[in-house]
Write a structure and sequence with these properties.
With about 170 residues, the chain is mainly alpha-helical. The chain has a domain at about 75-165: Cytochrome Bc1 Complex, Chain D, domain 2, CATH 1.10.760. The chain contains seven helices and no strands. It has helices at about 1-20, 45-50, 75-90, 115-120, 125-130, 130-140, 155-165. α4 (about 115-120) packs across α5 (about 125-130). The longest helix is centred in the N-terminal third of the chain and has 18 residues, at about 1-20. The chain is rod-shaped and about 115 Å long.
Length: about 170
């Protein structure tokens, strides 16, 4: 009876020694670790800023308006007329203070020249074909072109005056 007990103990000790304390060697070659690339991408800052947020006060756009001077005081009568024109002709695509189908006109004169705004209102077809900023806006707003509402220069100027009142 002692002999089977000794054999069982010997097998148990052999089993414990063979299973424990063994270090596995790491295999070289294939690895799942993600490699870090050392290449740096060079992007222009202008490309990372959306066109609707980009500031360009020198571009006058393409169209009939080449020079425009805004008075320090807002013409309230003209702004009221512009608000009426904006509500009738523009609210299908624009909201005064937030992005919709088209960009919001709020603070537009902080980002664009008055001439550019007038030319975009009066000549949207040619602007989106030839003006780089208008092209970028077209892309940003999912290819939704601005409709030509055939406004007069007087109506477009009134809308611009209304834009000055949006806070």
């Amino acid at each position: 009876m002692k002999k089977p007990l000794n054999i069982a103990a010997l097998l148990l000790i052999t089993l414990l020694i063979s299973c424990g304390g063994k270090e596995e060697k790491k295999k070289e070659g294939f690895s799942y670790d993600k490699k870090v690339t050392t290449e740096k991408t060079t992007e222009k800052k202008a490309e990372t800023i959306p066109a609707s947020k980009r500031v360009d006060l020198t571009n006058k756009g393409i169209g009939p308006v080449t020079s425009l001077t805004l008075h320090a005081e807002i013409d309230e009568t003209m702004a009221a007329k512009g608000a009426d024109v904006f509500k009738k002709m523009c609210t299908a695509c624009h909201r005064a203070d937030k992005k919709f189908i088209g960009p919001a006109p709020k603070d537009i004169l902080d980002r664009r020249s008055p001439e550019w705004v007038m030319n975009m209102i009066l000549n949207p077809d040619e602007m989106t074909q030839k003006d780089p900023l208008a092209k970028a806006l077209l892309i940003e707003f999912n290819g939704s072109p601005m409709a030509n509402q055939n406004l007069t220069e007087e109506d477009a100027r009134a809308v611009l005056e209304y834009f000055r009142t949006i806070k």
